[in-house]
């Protein structure tokens, strides 16, 4: 049996172990696990770590990470099936504190943080192989850092829990300044996780380069749009450590990155693991496929569809276009439906639908739902390096050019023109990140850290959805703290809500 399958069977077992806690958490704030019957052996430690990983499947599938990162930007909209008000709010910039997607994202993040806290606190006391013990603890610290990093980017100041919560009397947690969370948890956790081995102990787990790559992303977020920030140099150097490690490379063909047989390849630095064979399938294809089309891959929901804006963002001749967008869908009765994302159907076979859909996660062979969700890819690291080097050094160096040109060359595009100024190179990197990482839940986070979310959204709405232009307000850079958290957490009151909500 392959190591990956062993790991995913473990996910099934731990999902069963924690299932009762998750059901109870529909009515409570945190997960409570009695420690006296657990954390006694190395097997317990490994099972507890798998429980932390299992929380990420919940967050990235059911809490719709991609809807926040893509639909909350200029890249996708809620699509033809508009029955869900929570999605419409994200799409139209009208999110309120009762939005169910953010409520579940908040709650499930803290459920998973509590599991990570338990591993970090209790595993060191277990009599077991010290190398394995440290590996498990550092993986939990990597995962906790990732959870808090997402939370502070979405909500700003949030409760800080670094100890295991064991009973309801401990749930009162005030909001803590996000700078403190970066300084006391996110960055130290990732620095500890840099001690992980170069090769994951089990396929799909975090390793040293995953920690360094996420730390580079954290440093870029800390730099924001401050041209003199010291975090630019830190981000450049950390990304360069990944590049110099020799552990990763770009696959030859962009399409190969999103094929089942290439999951956890040298390009995939860290991904959320799914497997339909083990009953741990994702729902990306179900959500992204056209609604009402009886295809060989099933029926879709027509949710999270590309905007005309992202379609137009791809340069002519960009090989990534044919993977990012759905161009053909075989029909169950024979033949195919064809889709022209650019809207004309000129040169396309019939029947052709002049409408864009996401094709990145298309699986043509059953059982479907096994594609992993990428969190960090090597192309992202190359682009982070190019961006940070340009900012830290006052303009693009030859190594910055080399990094972005690797990504462009794989896409079949020419190298960037030499002699670009700092601002021109900055724009080129931002454009490259948009098309390379399209539909991977990153776009909104990039726009926020660059300080241009509101300007870009206003321009986007004015061009394509002018009736929504008035919805964009200054406070929309952050999302509201969920009302349920305010109701149940004695440490947060209505006055603690983010401004504007």
Automatic annotation (TrEMBL):
Q: Which UniProt keywords apply?
A: Cell outer membrane, Membrane, Signal
Kindly provide the name given to this protein in its UniProt entry: Putative outer membrane starch-binding protein
| One Pfam family matching this protein | SusD_RagB
InterPro entries linked: SusD-like_N (IPR033985), SusD_RagB_dom (IPR012944), TPR-like_helical_dom_sf (IPR011990)
Compartments in which it is found: Cell outer membrane
List, alphabetically, the GO terms of the cellular component aspect.
cell outer membrane
Family statement: Belongs to the SusD family.
Q: Where is the RagB/SusD domain?
A: 368-501
Nucleotidyltransferase as a keyword? Answer: no
Q: What is its main location?
A: membrane
């Amino acid at each position: 049996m392959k190591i990956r399958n062993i790991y995913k069977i473990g996910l099934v077992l731990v999902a069963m172990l924690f299932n009762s806690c998750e059901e109870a958490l529909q009515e409570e704030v945190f997960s409570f696990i009695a420690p006296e019957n657990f954390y006694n052996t190395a097997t317990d430690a490994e099972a507890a770590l798998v429980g932390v990983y299992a929380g990420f499947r919940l967050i990235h599938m059911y809490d719709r990470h991609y809807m926040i990162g893509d639909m909350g930007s200029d890249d996708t909209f809620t699509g033809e099936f508009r029955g869900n008000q929570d999605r419409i709010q994200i799409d139209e910039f009208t999110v309120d504190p009762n939005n169910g997607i953010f409520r579940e994202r908040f709650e499930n993040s803290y459920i998973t943080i509590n599991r990570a806290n338990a591993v970090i606190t209790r595993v060191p006391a277990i009599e077991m192989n010290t190398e394995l013990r440290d590996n498990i603890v550092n993986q939990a610290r990597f995962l906790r850092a990732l959870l808090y990093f997402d939370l502070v980017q979405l909500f700003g100041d949030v409760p800080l829990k670094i100890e295991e919560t064991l009973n309801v009397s401990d749930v009162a947690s005030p909001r803590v300044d996000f700078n403190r969370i970066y300084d006391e948890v996110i960055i130290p956790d990732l620095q500890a996780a840099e001690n992980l081995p170069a090769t994951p102990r089990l396929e799909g787990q975090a390793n040293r380069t995953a920690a360094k790559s996420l730390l580079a992303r954290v440093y870029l977020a800390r730099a924001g749009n401050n041209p003199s920030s010291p975090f630019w140099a830190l981000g450049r150097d950390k990304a360069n450590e990944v590049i110099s490690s020799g552990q990763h490379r770009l696959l030859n063909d962009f399409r190969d990155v999103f094929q089942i047989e290439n999951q956890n390849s040298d390009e995939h630095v860290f991904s959320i693991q799914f497997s339909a064979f083990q009953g741990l399938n994702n729902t990306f294809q179900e959500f992204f496929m056209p609604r009402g089309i009886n295809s060989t891959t099933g029926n879709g929901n027509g949710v999270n569809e590309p905007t005309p804006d992202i379609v137009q963002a791809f340069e002519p001749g960009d090989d990534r276009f044919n993977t990012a967008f759905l161009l053909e869908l075989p029909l169950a009765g024979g033949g195919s439906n064809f889709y022209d994302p650019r809207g004309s159907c000129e040169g396309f076979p019939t029947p052709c639908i002049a409408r864009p859909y996401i094709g990145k996660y298309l699986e043509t062979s059953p059982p479907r739902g096994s594609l992993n969700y990428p969190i960090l890819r090597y192309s992202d690291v190359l682009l982070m390096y190019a961006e940070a080097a340009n900012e830290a050094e006052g303009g693009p160096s030859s190594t910055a050019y080399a990094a972005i040109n690797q990504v462009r060359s794989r896409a079949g595009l020419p190298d960037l023109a030499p002699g670009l100024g700092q601002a021109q190179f900055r724009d080129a990197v931002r454009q490259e990140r948009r098309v390379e990482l399209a539909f991977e839940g990153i776009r909104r986070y990039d726009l926020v850290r660059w300080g241009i979310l509101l300007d870009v959204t206003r321009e986007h709405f004015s061009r394509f959805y002018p009736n929504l232009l008035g919805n964009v307000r200054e406070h929309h850079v952050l999302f509201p703290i969920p009302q349920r958290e305010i109701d149940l957490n004695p440490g947060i009151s209505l006055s603690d809500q983010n401004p504007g909500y």
